[in-house]
Design goal:
The chain is an alpha/beta fold. The protein is built from eleven helices and 15 strands. The strands form three sheets. It has a seven-stranded mixed β-sheet with strand order 12-11-10-9-13-14-15, sandwiched between helices. Strands 1, 2, 3, 4, 5 and 6 form a six-stranded mixed β-sheet that branches.
Length: about 375
């Protein structure tokens, strides 16, 4: 069911390429603050409704990040296949939505898309500005000005999640160096959140990806995990790991839980198992609103996706402005720390669900820009 309200969605686009049977969706939710910005995901079950929900999240996220972008999202139904077929799907989708780019929409990486897919995307439409998250060596030169990509693979989202985690922990007087953390999802967001949290001194005791769920009360060997990350190997390759059933991940007693995998991964089936003090939403919409409210009422502090995982879109803005990686990460740290502190501090003072605080603030910002 597509919900329409005073904020949008402004455009609902469904496309189909009969030659290769590519089905795709683009939702431009709100452009009060600027052109729509949001990633392109490729999953077997993506729907227009899922893309609409994610586009609305981007409207609020971009407003809260303080960047001049509106909210949008896109998706391609992708059940897997060769690299050549994937390229055809991405480029077919790009060409079909070209009339909206870049005045109303700019793409970016998301689930199952990264720098290579963004290169394919902009090559198909012939406009370097059509996507962010492009490869660092993929540049546009105009006169003396050189603009290059800031790839998603730099880990901006995971870095921002780690920063958000540090701020939330400090606000409830939790020493990060004495905390235990469980991360669900070990892709781009989860791996970089792991790396940055380890640098901060946190102990990661549980990790999960599609291949395995592994647990270690004493933490993992950083050297082994770093090797797996470099090789893009699955967690099932971690030697001598204590592997547990995937559903038991939610039963693990960790101070901080970071869902960094898929939409609604925390749900009515597993919500009662969760024992964390803090949940930092690394993924977009990792749980339904009613489940989130129930967990909050149980005393769990939740840092919502709207502010926790904004590092990626802040990096997109940095690329849009032609900043280098160092300046991008400095911008991410400053913006995320400031907003998380503002929202969580007020939530603790008023005993209000942080999402409600963040939403009211985001709506105010969008209304002012309209």
């Amino acid at each position: 069911m597509i919900i329409r309200d005073r904020f949008g969605p402004e455009y609902l686009i469904s496309v189909y390429d009969p030659k290769i049977k590519m089905v795709g969706f683009l939702v431009i939710d709100n452009t009060a603050l600027g052109l729509g910005k949001g990633g392109l995901r490729m999953t077997p079950n993506v729907t227009e409704e899922e893309v609409r929900r994610l586009a609305r999240v981007m409207t609020w996220k971009n407003a809260l990040a303080g960047i001049p972008f509106g909210g949008a999202k896109s998706g391609i139904v992708w059940s897997g296949g060769s690299k050549e077929l994937k390229k055809k799907f991405v480029q077919s989708f790009a060409r079909l939505i070209k009339p909206f780019i870049p005045k109303l929409y700019i793409a970016g990486p998301d689930v199952n898309t990264g720098e290579e897919e963004m290169r394919w995307f902009v090559e198909a439409i012939g406009d370097w500005r059509g996507a962010t998250g492009k490869p660092a060596d993929f540049c546009l030169v105009k006169g003396k000005r050189k603009r290059c990509g800031l790839p998603h693979e730099l880990g901006s989202t995971g870095f921002g999640v780690a920063e958000a985690t540090a701020v939330a922990a400090s606000l409830i007087k939790l020493d990060l160096k004495k905390t235990t953390v469980a991360i669900h999802g070990f892709g781009n967001v989860g791996t970089f959140a792991y790396q940055h949290l380890r640098k901060m001194g946190a102990k990661i005791i549980a990790l999960a990806d599609l291949s395995a769920t592994i647990f270690s009360e004493e933490g993992f060997d950083d050297r082994i995990l770093e090797k797996l990350i470099r090789q893009k190997a699955p967690l099932s390759d971690y030697p001598d790991a204590q592997k547990i059933p995937s559903e038991d991940f939610w039963k693990i007693k960790a101070d901080i839980l970071i869902p960094a995998s898929i939409t609604d991964v925390i749900n009515h089936r597993n919500k009662d198992e969760i024992k964390a003090k803090i949940i930092v939403e690394g993924a977009n919409i990792p749980m339904p609103d009613d489940v989130e409210e129930e967990l909050f009422q149980r005393g769990i502090l939740i840092v919502p996706d709207l502010i926790a995982n904004a590092g990626g879109v802040i990096s997109s803005y940095a690329e849009y402005r032609s900043y280098d990686a160092q300046k991008a990460f400095s911008l991410i740290r400053g913006k995320i720390r400031k907003r998380v502190k503002e929202v969580i501090k007020k939530a603790l003072q008023t005993k209000t669900n942080p999402r409600q605080i963040a939403l009211k603030l985001a709506q105010r910002i969008v209304n002012q820009g309209a």
